């Protein structure tokens, strides 16, 4: 445990801890998304598009909670501030979804990349966009 604390302190001094925590919880959000998607389809027999929307929403709720608490250490002064932050988070996640879809279209249709390569590229770019949105536009201190 002491080695973990030393490593964490070193990463915090270098300014990397926040980003590593973001990546860690982002991987868990992906697992939540996939698990809920297949649970909806396999257990509840929900149409795959409905399952996609439900899993996207719940994975983003998970992301909001983990990002707020453990990545950006954001504190809300009131319920209104909390819900305002949540709505900003979901708005920027919707924007990121639009970016994801647009990039997939461009990379598949115009650049002629395969699905796998296009998806890897879009997920890296969308992940960076989500991090920047969260750090500078969602979990920032408002006046």
TrEMBL record:
Signal peptide: none annotated. It is a multi-pass membrane protein. It comes from the Bacteria. It is found in: Membrane. The chain crosses the membrane at residues 20-39, 45-65, 86-108, 120-139. Keywords: Membrane, Transmembrane, Transmembrane helix. Residues 22-139 form the GtrA/DPMS transmembrane domain. The keyword Transmembrane helix applies. InterPro entries: GtrA_CellWall_Glycosyl (IPR051401), GtrA_DPMS_TM (IPR007267). Its main location: membrane. Belongs to the GtrA family. This is GtrA family protein. It comes from Tetragenococcus solitarius.
